[in-house]
Amino acid sequence: MGLADSLSDRFGIQDHGSSVRTELLAGATTFLTMSYIVVVNPAILSGAITPQGVPQGEVQSMLAVVTIIAAATATLVMALYANRPFAQAPGLGLNAFFAFTVVGALGVPWQTALAAVVVEGLLFVALTAIGAREYVIGLFPNPVKFAVGTGIGLFLAIIGLQAMGIVVADEATLITLGSVASNPVAILSVLGLFLTLGLYARDVPGSIIIGIAATTVAGWALTRFGPVAPDAGLVAGTTTVTYDITPLAGAFVSGLANVEAFTFALVVFTFFFVDFFDTAGTLVGVGQAGGFLDETGELPDIDRPLMADAIGTTVGGALGTSTVTTYIESASGVEEGGRTGLTALTVAGLFVASLALVPLAAAIPLYASHIALVVIGVVMLRNVIDIEWNDLTHSIPAGMTILIMPFTYSIAYGIAAGVVSYPLVKLAAGEGRDVRAGHWALAGAFVVYFVVRTGGVLTGQL
């Protein structure tokens, strides 16, 4: 029996109406569409994860290695345990929440933030193992579930636009348009963004990574051969690449010391909420595209891919990166015909192979890598169509969720605003019978948090 026959039998490829060649091609397509995370995740996290005495450039290369290992591990579990063509990696939005809200705004040490990721992953493993998915889903109002993706999209977009010099701070209006026509970084960012959006619209595989690479090369060429001065910021600073991740691996253990329970619980809760529903929504969406759903619209054996996500999150947090989630870009591989775990196995293998490209990832400047945030942010806005906008008891909590996230620079605050407003609006509309006890309990908990957080009670660090 040849290798192709062995793979076909192992993954049941013929039973799914596919072929080994199709599965391999699908895996390569999925990898190309999501490979940008190897560049973007380190760019976001390197400002928050700061091991003492380690230059930021080295931290960025460490994070690239950890990103690859976490993605490969989770996707390998998806392939061998769940036998589904879904790929996983540290999630956009969750890494921004880690860096800008948990470490930045809340002042949580990065080691403790990693501990929260590990705890969230273990909680996810436990709940998935005992089949508590339906109960957890029922605790959250539908308008909030449907609005989270759009809110995160806006949050990612504003982060990206700021890094690109297109949106800047302003004393009068808080934010405004930057000096785009006179700022080389902003000019090149705009050109790179539209190039990437054009490639994405044409369904070019790897469009985001192509756009990032083209923008980076253009910045280097303009600095090296063109009229742009070296200090204009078009090229990344000199970095020392390292594959030694020991300053990050296991750092979560020290983060468990002196934990302030309430805030730590909120961070774990938010990681869990966004990860859980982002993964569940992606699995159902991609499953629909691949014809995996049953007659009731459910993905059979969904606990298996959820377990892959949970294991990936736990491993990633232990090694030094933020929460792992299932990528919507998996749909590109499914559209190419991927139907089994061999597609995911191919993605995992390509992630491992990309370890050789870590030096190139470390050379990507911030403005170029953040093109991905704007592109993905725009794409995530399409989730807004799932909201029942003609029903005020849905549109108000959904709208609060979407608006509060970018305006407060916090995914957690957006979720909290939606959860608090839902039972209040339902009660005011005379539909209090639709509100479950869990809705009121969550709303009450978030009200307490807002009082503690904004009332000056929570002034210390974790």
From TrEMBL:
| GO MF annotation terms | purine nucleobase transmembrane transporter activity
Where's it found, cell-wise?
Cell membrane
* KW Ribosomal protein (keyword) present: no
**Where does the UniProt annotation place the signal sequence?**
none
- UniProt KW keywords: Cell membrane, Membrane, Transmembrane, Transmembrane helix, Transport
Q: From the record, what ranges are coiled-coil?
A: none
Transmembrane segment boundaries:
24-49, 61-82, 89-107, 113-132, 144-169, 181-201, 208-229, 249-274, 342-361, 367-385, 397-425, 437-458
Q: How does it sit in the membrane?
A: Multi-pass membrane protein
- What InterPro entries does the annotation carry? Azg-like (IPR045018), Azg-like_bact_archaea (IPR026033), NCS2 (IPR006043)
Primary localisation category: membrane
Look up the domain of life of the source: Archaea
Query: What Pfam families does the record point to?
Result: Xan_ur_permease (PF00860)
GO CC terms in record: plasma membrane
What family does this belong to?
Answer: Belongs to the nucleobase:cation symporter-2 (NCS2) (TC 2.A.40) family. Azg-like subfamily.
- The protein in question is named Uracil permease
The species this protein was found in: Halobellus salinus
